[in-house]
Automatic annotation (TrEMBL):
Record-annotated DisA/LigA helix-hairpin-helix motif domain positions: 15-62
Origin species: Cnuella takakiae
InterPro entries attached to this UniProt entry: DisA/LigA_HHH, RuvA_2-like
One GO-annotated biological process of the protein: DNA repair
Protein name per Swiss-Prot or TrEMBL: Helix-hairpin-helix motif-containing protein
The organism's taxonomic lineage, starting at the top: Bacteria, Pseudomonadati, Bacteroidota, Chitinophagia, Chitinophagales
Origin superkingdom: Bacteria
Keyword entries, A-Z: DNA damage, DNA repair
SUPFAM superfamilies from the UniProt entry: RuvA domain 2-like
Claim: Isomerase is one of the keywords in the record: no
């Protein structure tokens, strides 16, 4: 069973005009995807690369149904989502600017190459 935090993580990837880089920066700044959605507009728009339009999109976002459907799909097919930044992620992988904020795998993170997952 996935946590409620996963709902917010997946929803953040679905906010219009918020891409992988912005999502990753937002989570790094606010500590979690849930905290990003609970942040006030002025807190969001003061971040470099976010601005008033993206901040407004985040504050007005309310369609969590696709994220919930995606969680059901992940559970049904036993797919493990991996989000960056992860505390266990090596620095070299996490600091690549164009690196996506989410991966999907059927493997356990510990069975993956140690360069990325210690």
């Amino acid at each position: 069973m996935f946590t409620n935090d996963l709902l917010y993580q997946l929803a953040l990837t679905q906010v219009p005009q918020v891409g992988d880089i912005q999502a990753r920066l937002l989570v790094q700044r606010f500590g979690s995807a849930e905290a990003v959605f609970k942040a006030r507009k002025h807190q969001l728009e003061t971040m470099e690369g976010i601005g008033s339009i993206r901040a407004e999109n985040i504050c007005r976002f309310s369609n969590f149904a696709p994220a919930a459907a995606e969680i059901n799909f992940l559970e049904r097919y036993q797919i493990q989502p991996l989000f960056l930044p992860r505390p266990a992620t090596r620095k070299g992988c996490c600091n690549v600017p164009m690196h996506p904020c989410c991966f999907f795998t059927k493997a356990q993170p510990t069975s993956m190459h140690p360069r990325f997952w210690p």
